[in-house]
Amino acid sequence: MNIDIQDEGDSGSGQAVAFTVQENEEVHVLHPQQIIAYQGPSAGRADRFMDVKGMYRKRKLIRADLTGPCRFTAALPPGYRVKTIQLDSKSDLLYDFRHLFFYSKGVTMQTRVLSMKNMLITRDIVKVKFSGRGSIGILTEGTVCEAELHPFDPLYVDAGSIIAYPENAKLELTVYGNHLASQHMSYHWKMTGHGPVLFQAGRQSRRFERDNNEDGIIKRFLREALPFGGVFIK
User: Fold this and answer.
1) How far apart are CA 104 and CA 171, in angstroms?
2) What is the rounded (10 degree) CA torsion for 171, 174, 177, 178?
3) How far apart are CA 108 and CA 131, in angstroms?
């Protein structure tokens, strides 16, 4: 399978991604409504209801299974990109389902249910783990960064920016820094363990741009100076 990013710079209109699927290949697209062009046999596309255990029990999730030979193009919203990750037998990363765009034939998906405390704070129910050999595509907001976990020295990452982390990781939702720092920051994951953590930079970049462009100096000062000002002052 070949993937071609159709990019015209920062036009604000989003990207288009073209997929060329060879004969005997298959790709599962988890956002089929984003497919805007398709070339191949009509029977080469079959949409199905997903059976994802422990997740969205009352909602129907649809995926599109596309079998080669065919070519199709998918549109991405402004600010989003697709990053392709090659899996191997040692992969143990857990992903947020919302970040998933596609996975190839030969890859299987399992779910991991979060604790009730983490569900309430993050509004996530499960994480998704992939196994097998193949590739997956994840939707990201801006640049994807990677950091290695340490068994004892914690890594703090903005909870809304996390893309994936190792299943063995120990996590705790918290804030850090002095009194002023902890008052106006978002929740962070305090993480220890072994393996890589993937996180995205675009979410915070847009927040920075919004704050600078839309807020006066008084509102910005109150948001940062008052306890939990970032929550109550919009």
Assistant:
1) 30
2) -150
3) 5
CA of residue 80 relative to chain centroid, distance: 10
Q: How many residues does the chain have?
A: 234
Asked whether 80 and 141 are in contact (CB, 8 A), the reply is: yes
Judged by DSSP in three states, 167 sits in coil
pLDDT tens digit sequence for 160-217: 888 999 988 898 888 999 988 887 788 899 999 999 999 998 765 455 445 555 555 5
| Nearest Cα residue to 80 out of 34, 29, 117, 36 | 34
Model confidence pLDDT, tens digit, residues 121-172: 556 677 888 988 899 999 888 888 999 999 999 999 998 888 999 988 898 8
- Terminal C-alpha separation, the chain: 45
